[in-house]
Each structure stands twice: as C-alpha cells, then as structure tokens.
Amino acid sequence: MRAQLERYFEFDKLKTDWRTEILAGFTTFVTMAYIVFVNPSMLSETGMPYPAVMAATCLSAAFGSILMGVLARYPIALAPGMGLNAYFTYTVVGGMGLSWEVALGAVFLSGVAFLLLTAVGVRQLILSAIPPQLYAAVAVGIGIFIALIGFRNSGLIVASPSTTVTLGDLSNPHTLLALFGLLLTAVLLSWRVRAAMLIGVLATACVGISFGLVKWSPRYFSLSELGGTMLQLNVKDALQLGLLEIVFVFLFVDLFDNIGTLIGVGKKAKLFDQANRIPRLNQILLSDASATLFGSLAGTSTVVSYIESAAGVVAGGRSGVTAIVAGLLFLVALFVAPLFGAIPPSATAPALILVGALMISHTSEIAWSDPVIAIPAFLTITTIPLTFSIANGLAFGFTAYALLRILRGEFRNVHWLTYVLAAVFLIRFIYLGRG
Q1: Which of 310, 343, 376 is the endpoint of a domain?
Q2: What is the Cα–Cα distance from 257 to 235, expressed in whole angstroms?
C-alpha cells in the first residue's frame, strides 16, 4: 500500500519522501492557521454565528486541501480567502445592505460559474494565454506580497499618513518577538535545516507564550452548531440581475488570485514542464471550484488557493501529500482551535517574510533588457503588493504587455485571448474609475 501511494504521488520523480511531505504540510498549515479565527471574526460582523463560521472555515479548508492533494496531487492548500471575505462582509452585506444568506448564494453561483468555465476549457485557455515572461514576474510579485503581509503582521511596517508606510515601533514586545523569530528562522535556513520554517514559527510562539505576549479567549463549539450556516444560502435572490456584478467580482478576483497563486507556488515548486505547462491542470481547477461550492454550502465566503502554500514548498513539499496533511490538520483544528489560536501573527510573520525573500530569485528569469517584457513584468511585480491584490498585478501586466506588443507591430505574435483579457481588464479599470 505504501509503495502504491508513493507511485501515485510520484515520490521518486519529485525526489521527496513521507517525512518531508508531512513536515511541509505542517509548515503550510501553521502559516495559514490564522484563518481559523480571522475568517469567523470578520464574517460574524454580518450576523453570521461565530462558532458556525469557524466550523465552516475548518471544514471547507480541509475539503479543498485534501481534494487538491488527492485529485490534483499538488502541494497547494485552500481556505476561505482574505480579501474576498472582506468584500463579502463590508461591501456586499455592509455596504449594499444584503443579507449574508444572499451573499452566500452569490458565492455559490460564482462556484458554479467556475465549474462551467473549467468544463468548457476557458480557465485553461486563460492560463495558456499568460505570457511565459510574466510567470516569473507573478511569482516575484507574490513573494513581495507575502513579505509585505509578514512585515505588517509583525509590526515592522505600519501605516503612515505622510509616507503611506513607515517603520514600526521596534520597542513593541510583539515586534521584538517577530524580530527574534526572523533571526532564528534565517539562521536555521542558512544552516539548511529542512524544518526551519516550522521550528521558527513554533519556537517563536513558545517564546511569546512564556513572556505572556499571547492572549486568547477559548471558544468551544460542537459540530451541531454548523447548522447555523450550513445550507442557509439564498440562491434564488442572488439570481437577481442586480447581483450579477457581485457574482462577477467573486468570480473575477477568485479566478485571477488562484491563477496567480498557482503560478507563484508552481514556479517555486518547479511544477511547470519544459513548455511552461502545468500537468493535471484540469484537476487543479476542478478542485478549487469544488471547494468554493462546498464552502458556500457550509457557510463561508469564497475558498481559494493560499499563497502561504509557498511556505510548505520552501520546506520541501512537492506532492499532494503536503496539501492532504494541511487539510487533515484543519479537521483537527475543529476540536483544538483554541490551541492553534495561541500562535500569534508575530510568530508566523517571520516565515512569510523569508518566503518572500526566497521567491525573489525568479527575477533572474526575466529579460530585463527587453522593455516589452521588462515593463509589464515590473508593473506586475510592483502592483501586486502595492494594491494588495494578485488580480490587479495580473491586470496591469496583461494590459501593458498587450498594448506594447500592438504598438510595436507584433500583435500577431500574441495569443488572441491575451487581447480579450486585456480588453476586459481595461473595461474593469474604467468601471472602477467611475466607482
């Protein structure tokens, strides 16, 4: 049985083993475990019951990650997406005054659209239309994005009304804790310790607990409380014409955030073949679409592929076992969530910063001497972190690449769908500008 599993997950081809994959799964889970508490805290502002959303968060993350690992066999974990949960809470429910049941219905419809687009091959076409030159740029942009999240969570970078961002308070105990974790993890990485990320996160959390820096209020719940959100979505009202825009936003952001994450993690894990294609792409896209459907039925906002999966890849994860382990840990988190809630952002922030540092290496793959490649790549790299959106980075890169090719008289050398997507992006920018 063990030998069959190793053949199925291609351990020999990927040069990996059970110990490495399990460790990588733990690392991925630890870096994204914050969603177990952050997601219900945010969605509960819509009136959704906190315990039910917590259960839905864990179950949807477990379902999506395990499905990705078993079906697609990639080290990519899934969970309700940050950003989309904010859109769900503050724009759809808070701003438009819709009920959370209708908002869940819109999430469900976007998941159905995902499945249909995948079935007819549209999502696969979109991936093939992305210029290979931009693959590396997306990976670098995501790396900086991950690092920015880490810097923010650690308190090393804070908002500033005069300079947008500035250095945080280095005397803050939580920031000092993050600096300790950053140094410890960096030293472990420099010594080629395979478990560097995981050891760094757990050791930093232990130090924080010992100094009384970790405060949390345990919340106990049973699976029966899932009924507060399970199957409570209102698809009928979400089908109204006025809600098509909401469905489109869920669909659009999820589509390009997933593609961006897939490219970023795929580049780091060296999953692309020699023709810059990803094997079993259909299974990947079916997995994340199914996870969104499952999440809406369970009672949470859109489920997406997580950029934190790159932490597990850095730890050596290469197969679907990494995602399966992360998914199983989300199931465990259902019952021991207070324990995992003890891991503060200052403990996971160093891992995110260092993952970003390691992903910068892909800049060497960009032909910086060619402006037609360099300018779109630069816009992609910078706008992902500066707009806090992978989708925006892809939009700027796509549009700039298409326009420069046209204006240099090389429009025949570009995939036709690239122009279609560039036009969609332009329309989106015009619409956003009017909003």
Answers
A1: 343
A2: 24
Please count the helices (runs of H) and the strands (runs of E) in the chain.
Answer: 20, 4
Distance of alpha carbon 1 from its chain centroid, rounded? 33
Ranges 139-153, 206-220, 360-374: which has the least confidence: 206-220
Residues 422 and 375 occupy one common structural domain:
yes
Residue 181, in any domain of the structure: no
Cα–Cα distance between 342 and 215 in angstroms, integer? 7
**What stretch of H or E contains 350?**
helix 345-359
Residues 254 and 295 in one domain: yes
CA distance 161 to 222: 44
Give the count of domains, the chain: 2
Mean pLDDT to the nearest integer, 84-89: 75
Give Cβ neighbours of residue 291 (< 8 Å, ≥ 6 apart). Answer: 60, 63, 64, 67, 68, 78, 303
Domain containing residue 45: 2-135+217-343
Specify the 3-state DSSP secondary structure of 117: helix
Tell me the C-alpha distance between 94 and 407, whole Å.
Answer: 43
Domain match, 339 and 371 both: no
Instruction: For residue 201, list its beta bridge partners.
Output: none
pTM above 0.85, yes or no: no
